[in-house]
Write a structure and sequence with these properties.
It contains 23 helices and 13 strands. It has 560 residues and is α+β, with helices and mostly antiparallel strands. It folds into three domains: 97 residues, no CATH class; 150 residues, no CATH class; 193 residues, no CATH class. The strands form four sheets. Strands 1, 2, 3, 4 and 6 form a five-stranded antiparallel β-sheet that branches. The longest helix is centred in the C-terminal third of the chain and has 33 residues. InterPro entries: ABC1_dom, Kinase-like_dom_sf, UbiB, UbiB_bact, UbiB_kinase. Keywords: ATP-binding, Cell inner membrane, Cell membrane, Kinase, Membrane, Nucleotide-binding, Transferase, Transmembrane, Transmembrane helix, Ubiquinone, Ubiquinone biosynthesis. Belongs to the protein kinase superfamily. ADCK protein kinase family. Pathway: Cofactor biosynthesis; ubiquinone biosynthesis [regulation].
Length: 560
């Protein structure tokens, strides 16, 4: 009851803000909310007070900033969706500021002591009461641990989770109405988009999850120390509301003059930015999804990137990775037919889509772009124009790609700031080609064999027993068969061919497993398996497999 009352009060507040900025018309695209218009027209809020300044986009940005963190983050996400919104709106939403006044340091101390169960003085020898940065989710203080390590302490704002939970529930309700009563809402998969956004935002609220994200990213780039540095997390001092990590020292990426004075190579920086992005997406399938200038620094000693704020991370499944790489490679090769086919195969457009028409539409947007020099082509803009075109072919929104689009726009902007002549295709193509070869070629097969080898260890011992049961049931006439064809001779021939295929399949399985074992141990030829040297297995495995094949085949030289 109390939750319902709080939610109702929040809805009233949101309505008040929409009316104040003359944005209440955004609700009326749903027929079910039309009566709401009449109520608001009669409300004194609609005709009292001064009228807000600016066009629709400016008023929308101001309203989102007034509504708080949930809507600020939503606006920032929508600022990258030029496939859904007009450019003048996305450009205005890109100006959304996540900087808000800090909350009192006494409250920060109280949150830290409650979360860690110790007085601040027993954890830190120094604690800077003046916040170094303040945002809508949390604020950061600097300090020094008892052992002398300098740290950054991130503290979540008090009372934030309750407000965000209410806002997400309201957005979920609106999304449900949009899909239920609007065909456009169903095409855009509004519920899935809101669910993905809610998952991302709730993950950002949990600072333990952010700490885990940072640790994972740090491991991923442990072998690339010259590319990207991730601060160390001090787990003994972390909770869902407090995060303590290594303090970093770097030049903010937006301070170009300071970077020049430090002697940083801008061309190298631009290439590293693109390299970091593509490595995260196609090597790790796990990427920092909030790479705006406020979260990126440059180490003045060696020019490597330093990242902070790991609340928003993105990941891609194998299918999305594969089709994204296919699309980008096909674009670069101007193979528009393959781009169209990849969309259909991925299920991003309906299966009955006319591929020729789709190919022609893609060619119409891509060819004018490729007439420019390659270093002037924006990968992000090209993909966004593709999504705008696919809208006409009823492409469903892919929530897993939302964060990727946002990140690509940010990274390409950073790279081009340092070197406007950067050829993103030149950086991307070798990485994409290498990734595809690892996925589909012999290297990919070998990787899959190694990955599934432990599973084979559980399954393979059961194969002889299962095969023996099938053969015994077949010999004794107990194998259940459903016969629908009256041509018994044809059935016998088909059964014979099927069993032969089974024999070949079983034999092939043993051969593949044998080869996999031998390949894995190829560097130890004197290694003994079941008291037999490896060279003996090299003779026995093929021999026994052939004998087994002949034995299985003999059962089905039937008995006409």
């Amino acid at each position: 009851m109390r939750q319902s009352l709080l939610r109702f009060v929040r809805i009233l507040h949101i309505t008040r803000v929409l009316v104040r900025y003359r944005l209440d018309e955004v609700l009326y695209f749903l027929p079910i909310l039309k009566p709401y218009q009449a109520i608001l027209r009669l409300s004194p809020m609609s005709w009292l007070g001064s009228k807000p300044q600016g066009d629709f986009a400016e008023r929308l940005r101001q309203a989102l900033e007034t509504l708080g963190p949930t809507f600020i983050k939503l606006g920032q996400m929508l600022s990258t969706r030029r496939d859904l919104l007009p450019d003048y709106i996305t450009q205005e939403l890109a100006k959304l500021q996540d900087a808000v006044p800090p909350f009192p340091s006494d409250q920060a101390r109280e949150i830290i002591e409650k979360a860690l169960g110790k007085p601040v003085s027993s954890i830190f020898t120094e604690f800077d009461s003046q916040p170094a940065a303040a945002a809508s989710i949390a604020q950061v203080h600097f300090g020094v641990l008892q052992d002398g390590r300098k740290v950054a302490i991130k503290v979540r704002r008090p009372g934030l989770r309750r407000i965000i939970d209410q806002d997400l529930a309201i957005l979920g309700l609106l999304a449900d109405l949009a899909e239920r009563y609007s065909q456009e809402g169903r095409r855009l998969r509004v519920r899935a988009v809101v669910a993905e956004y809610a998952k991302t935002l709730r993950g950002e609220l949990d600072l333990l999850r952010e700490a885990a994200n940072a640790s994972q990213l740090r491991r991923n780039f442990a072998a690339d120390p010259d590319l990207l540095y991730i601060p160390e997390i001090y787990w003994d001092f972390c909770s869902s509301s407090v995060l303590v990590m290594e303090r970093i020292y770097g030049i903010p990426i937006g301070q170009l003059d300071a970077l020049r004075k430090a002697g940083i190579n801008f061309d190298q920086l631009s290439r590293r930015a693109a390299d970091i992005f593509f490595r995260q997406v196609f090597r790790d399938a796990y990427f920092h999804a909030d790479m705006h200038p406020g979260n990126i620094f440059i180490d003045p000693q060696n020019g490597r990137f330093i990242a902070v704020d790991f609340g928003i991370m993105g990941s891609l499944d194998d299918a999305s990775q594969h089709y994204l790489a296919e699309n980008m490679i096909a674009f670069f090769q101007r193979d528009y037919r393959r781009v169209a086919e990849a969309h259909v195969e991925a299920g991003w457009v309906p299966p009955d889509t006319n591929v020729q028409d789709f190919e022609a539409a893609i060619r119409a947007i891509a060819e004018p772009v490729f007439e420019k020099p390659l270093n002037e082509i924006s990968v992000a803009n090209l993909l966004l124009r593709l999504f705008q075109t696919t809208r006409a072919f009823h492409m469903q929104t892919q929530p897993q790609l939302l964060l990727l689009q946002k990140t690509l726009v940010n990274v390409e902007g950073i790279a081009r700031d340092f070197n406007p002549a950067l050829n993103m295709w030149e950086v991307a193509t070798p990485l994409l080609t290498d990734w595809l070869s690892r996925q589909r070629g012999p290297r990919g097969w070998w990787t899959e064999m190694k990955r599934h080898f432990p599973e084979w260890g559980l399954v393979v011992p059961e194969i002889p027993i299962l095969l023996h049961n099938i053969l015994r049931q077949t010999q004794q006439g107990e194998l259940p068969l459903v016969i629908r064809n009256q041509d018994l001779e044809g059935i016998r021939q088909e059964l014979r061919r099927g069993m032969l295929r089974l024999s070949f399949g079983v034999s092939g399985t043993f051969i593949v497993i044998g080869i996999g074992i031998m390949a894995a141990l190829a560097h130890k030829l004197d290694f003994a398996i079941l008291d037999l040297p490896l060279w003996a297995w090299l003779i026995l495995v093929p021999g026994l497999t052939w004998i087994g094949f002949r034995w299985v085949s003999s059962f089905f030289k039937v008995r006409d």
